Amino acid sequence: MKAWLKFSPDITNNSIISDTIKSYDIDFNILRANITPKGGKLLVEISGNQVTESIEYMESQGISVDPIKKVVKKEEEKCVDCGACVSLCPVKAISISDDWTILVDDQLCIGCAFCTSSCPMKAIKVTE
After folding, report:
1. Is residue 60 classed as helix, strand or coil in its secondary structure?
2. Could you give the CA distance from residue 37 to residue 51 in angstroms, rounded to a whole number?
3. pLDDT in tens, 69-119
4. Where is the 4Fe-4S ferredoxin-type domain (predicted)?
């Protein structure tokens, strides 16, 4: 599961994430991070048998957990495989295959929608 974790400056020095990993035996992959004196925001991928419990724990410690539910889909009949969307994807979820067609990886997509505005054919849509 992918999610945005947001937290206030009051808890930035607490070891909540490492405590969560140790206590709930989850895999925790940080995809993006922005931590400032005003607070923090992490894009993470969490997996394991106790994901729900780990989220409940983080929320009880003051972390806001916002699961990512949106991904982009390519409409094959509209796409001309121009590649305008590829360079804008911050997580490399869009790529060009060996036969020069555009591929979208739902597992990597974070639903940011940067690619949608670049498509001249309007072939990329954000879906739930």
Report:
1. helix
2. 28
3. 878 889 999 999 999 999 999 889 999 999 999 999 988 888 888 899 999
4. 70-99, 100-128
**Distance separating alpha carbons of residues 85 and 106, to the nearest angstrom:** 15
Which residue's entry shows tokens 């555009």?
102
Distance of CA 18 to the CA centre of its chain: 20
Architecture of the domain spanning 71-127: 2-Layer Sandwich (3.30)
Residue pointed to by tokens 């140790």:
22
The CATH number of the structural domain formed by 2-67 is 3.30.70.260
pLDDT digit string, tens, across residues 26-77:
999 888 889 888 888 998 989 999 999 999 999 999 999 999 887 888 999 9
